[in-house]
Task: structure prediction
Amino acid sequence: MKRLIPALVVLVMAAAARAEVTDRSAAGFEVLEKATIAAPAARVYAAFLTPGRWWSSDHSWSGDARNLTIDLASGCFCEKLAGGQVRHMRVVYADGKSLILEGALGPLSSTGATGHLALRMKETDGKTAVNLVYDVGGYAKGGLAESWAGPVDGVLGAQLARLKSYVETGQPD
Result:
């Protein structure tokens, strides 16, 4: 029963975020994740910049999400590793309301693919509508969209649900 409760919480949180693969072709795909977070946009933006507090450790190279950082000064969405680091993405635009990162997340980094992850927010009545769009293009053996669109959609949907939970409750899940 103790294992069932966390699984149910994840399902409920994932349902709070809407996700879909909005486009796919031989050259790549686009994933769109949406959520409404019960907090001001400035708080959501600040939380997004601290992925070590809400990102899933299951989707990190080190196995510990606390090693993840986004440093606007250096433009690095990086992860500390024993004896090194991983640069997951590079910040190419940040204005306090929107954020655009460039790079290949997770195992996509071992393919010929790259992408742009755009975080866009709109605050209304103290709640923030979040759109997270990841456009990925390039080459991957077996086909980029065929092999990667669904799994990327699932991972980013889960990450946005964790961000929502973290901002609203202080806990990522």
